[in-house]
Predict the 3D structure of the following.
Amino acid sequence: MSYFDEIQEIKYEGKDSKNVFAFKYYDKDRVIDGKSMKDHLKFAMSWWHTMTAELGDPFGDPTVDRTYGEEDELERAFKRVDQGFNFMQKLGIEYFCFHDVDLAPQGNSLEEFKDNLNKVTDYVKEKMEETGIKLLWGTANVFSNKRYMHGAGTSCQADSFAYAASQIKNAIDATMKLGGKGYVFWGGREGYETLLNTDMGFELDNLARLLKMAVNYARSKGYTGDFYIEPKPKEPTKHQYDFDASTVLAFLRKYDLMDDFKLNIEANHATLAGHTFEHELAVARINNALGSIDANRGDELLGWDTDQFPNDVKTATLAMLELIKAGGFTNGGLNFDAKIRRPSFTYEDIVLSYICGMDTMALGLIKAYEVIEDGRINDFVEDRYSSYKEGIGKKIVDGEVTLEDLEEYTLKNGEVNLQSGRQEYLETILNNIIYR
Ligand code: XLS
Ligand code: NI
Ligand code: NI
């Protein structure tokens, strides 16, 4: 398969199909709970891994040809747009997301980059109008270039901060031009290697200054969408400031940024932080900050971001339960910040990875609704806290008792009549639903 020209349209054939180039579970127009599967899931293609990643690693050269038959970088960018839209149309993907540098070549100056980005986004816009495909979110890559070796918003050098701010301004312009409803900050170099050379407090103040400037700029231009921070604990820096959902929420609250920011939760970053995917989603949800999802999986045994396509239905089910409890996506969606393995270098491999990833999340959605409909897990959790619905529990919740009151109560009440957490019962139910 040379690029994506030869792919046929990928259709839903149902779970008994043996055609690997067909969906087994993702039936985009199937309505579940009043909404089509495609509107529940809002799948988005990531421009970087899908269209530009050459699959090099620290030990080896690229393994995949990303020239799209063009030597000239700007011409290549246009060809890539053709192929990207080709790919999304064949898979029935309605959204995409990008970094500025994925779309257009950087040239030799900020001016050239700006110009290139303008030209390429003009073309992207035409393609969007022609196909109905939409932008989920945009972002700026302020971590790859060596000018960001000390950070972007958290750099010790003001000129690096200024350069990053300029790139972010242009990436916001591009996002707005393409009608995006999301703008992501993933702090690739926003962290530190050693406290011996780092003023952490000052760096965090500066990061907040940058985010505020971005919000002020975008809002002044009429942007009504969301800003997202994508937590990640480490890699590339030893300690990333946006460590996990809780850390990011504390940062947003400290700097009064909660009105404009939500979280973009990535499965693999949760793993790296020592959390489950569903834990990070739940933390975002209970703080009304679940914005968007990066669905790539990691590897439990490795300490780096493998960015693999999701294939675990149980994880997908638990993640979709969180999304449903959060009320679903509004401006956000579900993107695959995921890539194929280095030795899987063909364009066919990319197509297969998306089909499996989309089917995994689709089956997760179906199973999550089955869990809800079954009701036993939810009822169990409700009941588990029932002691707070009356008597002394209700008084605690209503703020009607003091420590002295509770001592008096306990002196009369005596020892606690304990109840089982019944994890095994709940795991049995979950397995029964997933594997039936
Ligand atoms: C890297 C991040 C990155 C963001 C977008 O680990 O996941 O790809 O999603 O900048
Ligand atoms: Ni990642
Ligand atoms: Ni990501």
In short: The mean pLDDT is 97. Residues 186, 230, 266, 294, 337 surround nickel (II) ion (ligand 3) (CB under 6 Å). The longest helix spans residues 347-374. The two ends are 36 Å apart (CA to CA).
